[in-house]
């Protein structure tokens, strides 16, 4: 049954290849920022609806979040898709730096492929379910704002992932990999300090500087660094520091990210930083207002899912590239210094990384690696991985050594190399979902591992219910 289903799914993807690529390229052109991905989310949701999915739009208080469902009963397999772009990364589909529109957003993380590979896999599985008589439910989660406002967490808080048996998602990258790595949990806070303005030269004694509070808080936190765990990361910006030197700043604001390998470690450090902020307000005679923006968990890996994905990647086989694509890859690689590539490969901790030093595009499929390792970023996929066995895998869409969030990513995500990664990923996802739908034992193994890793710990969304998704963030931004 699963063999037939797999054949049907693959042939649907092959037959619809040009449409799938067209959708990815349209989202690439739209390049919409997090929470305002109106055209991108509509394109994906419409396509799923046309294919026979029941689509619920605007879920969890976000106009660009949606859930598309097909089928009924268990197992319920989820696929996640992202479609948000990054500011300032506009870039043409050429192997040198050349913006389409200076300063405009671009798909610097390849999320045009992310959303589309998932959509294609979901429809392919639906067609296979019909033709091969598979039982169960497929759910596509359209998850906005991964880059800035963690759409998935608001969706998780709303309980949208309850009852899902496993979740798969795909992120373009520079390797065909399903690692066992985790990532850093994170808290994001803004600190608003309110003081009293005054003439900074004529009557400074009457002023209370909010900027002083911001600076003293930063000094306190910088001393704290010595007394937190080695793996913690704390970084800040001063978003507002006053207007001009002869006016004592009555208002100042900083924005902090606090990260550590485990959620509870982040919470412990955040607690101390909140005390430091209070101390800074006390020292300067200012008032403090604390605003939580975001709070994410660390990723719970799942070896059963990683091994399943690797098996399917090997069976399907990574794509081959044309001379033209290899030429493009060569040009892109000229913009990546060899030492930067070496460092990126070393950092991947892949056991055979040195063998890849002279490789342009990775066509190998390594065994899952990286148990106990941590990627020093954060993702809202993590919150989902606390609710059901979850794996986000990558396929090679970019030349090895390509830095994340870069013009090189934008360029490659819109041309042949990215397109091939998209089609390959859609097939791998479809095959993996079909395996999970048809093999009860496999799903049980994934759950056993999930429960063993959590050891009784339960997911409780870190963002309190009163905090709403910041859907006006961009219009507020443009006002300042
Ligand atoms: Zn990304």
Low-confidence stretches: none
Q: What does the main sheet amount to? A: 6 strands, mixed
The pLDDT mean sits at 96
Gap between N and C termini: 58 Å
Specify Rg, calculated over alpha carbons: 23 Å
Name the bound molecules: zinc ion
Q: Per the principal axes of the C-alpha atoms, what is the gross shape?
A: globular
What share of the residues lie within helices?
Answer: 40-55%
What are its keywords?
480 residues; alpha/beta; 6-stranded mixed beta sheet; 4-stranded antiparallel beta sheet; 15 helices; 17% strand; globular; binds zinc ion
Task: Give the arrangement of secondary structure elements.
Blueprint: H1 2-15, H2 17-30, H3 38-50, E1 54-57, E2 66-72, E3 76-81, H4 111-132, E4 136-142, H5 151-157, E5 166-173, E6 182-183, E7 185-194, H6 210-224, E8 233-240, E9 251-260, H7 263-284, E10 287-296, H8 303-316, H9 323-334, H10 338-348, E11 374-375, H11 381-385, E12 390-396, H12 407-413, H13 416-438, H14 440-454, H15 473-479
Helix pairs in contact: 1-4, 1-13, 2-3, 2-4, 3-4, 4-13, 6-7, 8-13
The structure holds zinc ion.
Zinc ion (ZN) binds next to loops.
In short:
With 480 residues, this protein is α/β, with parallel strands linked by helices.
Structure description:
The protein has 480 residues and is of the alpha/beta class. 42% of the residues lie in helices and 17% in strands. The chain contains 15 helices and twelve strands. The strands form three sheets. The protein has a six-stranded mixed sheet. Strands 8-9-7-10 form a four-stranded antiparallel sheet, with helices on one face. Helix 1 crosses helix 4 (111-132). The model has no long low-confidence stretch (mean pLDDT 96). Zinc ion is lined by residues 109, 111, 146, 171.
